[in-house]
Specification:
- The chain has 295 residues and is an alpha+beta fold.
- The protein folds into two domains: 107 residues, no CATH class; 127 residues.
- The protein has nine helices and eight strands.
- The strands form two sheets. The chain has a six-stranded antiparallel sheet with strand order 2-7-3-4-5-6, sandwiched between helices. The chain has a two-stranded antiparallel sheet with strand order 1-8.
- A hairpin with a 3-residue loop joins β3 and β4.
- α3 runs antiparallel to α5, α5 crosses α9 and α7 runs antiparallel to α8.
- The longest helix is centred in the last third of the chain and has 25 residues.
Length: 295
C-alpha cells in the first residue's frame, strides 16, 4: 500500500521536509516560514564540539513535538531501535507503523536522515528520499532485518497524526518563548558534547580554531542552520502583527542567516570565520534579548 501524494519536501533540514510532507498530506495551509517558526526550529542551532555533521539530529526533540502540535501534527514516538534490537521489538514497531499507514497516517523515521514512510510492500517499508536524484538515504527498509542500513542502525520511528492547530497568537508566543529558552537554558536542549544557543556559537568558533572549519560538518551545519535563520526572518515578517518589533527582528535574522551561510564555506580562513561567527552570535543575542523583554 502507498499513501497517494505523500511526498517529502527537499529541504536541507530533513526533519522539516518530512513534516512539511505530512502537513501537505493533511491539507494544513501553513507556509514554510510558519512551519519553521512556530515549531521553534527557525531558532535552533546545535553544534558538536568537533563540528560533527550530527548537529541537526542530536538534540532534545520533546519541546519541538509540543510546538509541532500547535501547527497541526501530533507525534507518537515508537522508541529507539539499534542493531541489537530484538526481533520481537522490531516486529511490534513495524506492526504499529503498518496500522498507522493503513489508516492514512504518515510515519517517519530518523537514522542517517529524517525520512517519511509513505507505505509498504510485501518486503518492507517505502521510505522517501529527501533530495531528488540522490540514492541516499535508502528508499526501502526491509521488514525485520532493516538490511539496507547495514550496521548503521540508530533509528527512531514516529507516527504523524492530524490535530487541530493552535490559535496563531498562542503558537507564535510559544515559539518565541522557546527561542528565548534555547539561549537562557541551552544545556536543557542537547547533550554534553553539543551546544545550542550561545554554546552553539562558542563550540563552532572553538572547533574552527582546532582545525575543523574545513570539514564536511562545518559545511553541513552552516547549510542547515542558515536555512533555519532565513525562515526565522520570513516567519517574523509573516506574523508581524503578533510578534514584538517584528520588522526589525526579521531584518536582523536575515543578516544572521547570511553570516551563517557564509561560514559554511570550508575554504574560509579561520580568522575570518571566527569574526563572522562572533558577529552572528552578537546579533542573535540582541534579538533574543528583545524577544525576551516583550514576552
Amino acid at each position: 500500500m502507498v499513501i497517494e501524494g505523500l511526498k517529502q519536501a527537499p529541504f536541507n533540514y530533513t526533519l522539516m521536509g518530512a513534516v512539511r510532507g505530512a502537513l501537505d498530506h493533511y491539507g494544513v495551509p501553513v507556509s514554510d516560514a510558519y512551519l519553521y517558526g512556530a515549531t521553534g526550529q527557525a531558532f535552533m542551532m546545535n553544534i558538536h564540539r568537533e563540528l560533527c555533521p550530527s548537529g541537526p539530529y542530536c538534540w532534545n526533540r520533546d519541546p519541538f513535538f509540543r510546538l509541532l502540535a500547535n501547527v497541526g501534527i501530533a507525534v507518537t514516538e515508537l522508541g529507539f531501535h539499534h542493531a541489537e534490537t530484538p526481533p520481537e521489538q522490531r516486529a511490534a514497531s513495524e506492526e504499529r507503523l503498518r496500522a498507522a499507514l493503513d489508516r492514512g497516517a504518515p510515519c517517519m523515521l530518523v537514522n542517517m536522515e529524517y525520512q517519511l514512510i509513505t507505505g509498504y510492500d510485501d518486503t518492507g517499508f517505502l521510505t522517501a528520499q529527501p533530495w531528488p536524484g540522490m540514492g541516499f538515504p535508502p528508499a526501502h527498509l526491509a521488514f525485520g532485518t532493516w538490511s539496507e542500513l547495514c550496521d548503521e542502525v540508530h533509528m527512531d520511528f514516529y507516527i504523524l497524526d492530524r490535530v487541530e492547530p493552535a490559535e496563531r497568537a498562542k503558537a507564535v508566543r510559544a515559539a518565541l518563548a522557546y527561542a528565548v529558552d534555547l539561549w537562557r537554558h541551552p544545556v536543557d536542549h542537547t547533550s554534553e558534547d553539543y551546544g545550542v544557543g550561545p554554546n552553539a556559537y562558542q563550540n563552532w568558533v572553538e572547533a574552527v580554531h582546532r582545525g575543523h572549519g574545513a570539514s564536511h560538518g562545518n559545511w553541513w551545519n552552516g547549510t542547515v542552520w542558515a536555512e533555519c535563520r532565513a525562515h526565522a526572518a520570513s516567519f517574523l515578517k509573516e506574523v508581524g502583527d503578533l510578534a514584538p518589533d517584528a520588522e526589525a527582528l526579521s531584518a536582523e535574522y536575515a543578516a544572521v542567516a547570511d553570516l551563517v551561510a557564509r561560514c559554511s564555506h570550508k575554504e574560509m580562513p579561520a580568522p575570518e570565520k571566527d569574526e563572522l561567527l562572533r558577529q552572528a552570535a552578537a546579533r542573535e543575542r540582541a534579538c533574543i534579548q528583545r524577544m525576551e523583554a516583550a514576552l
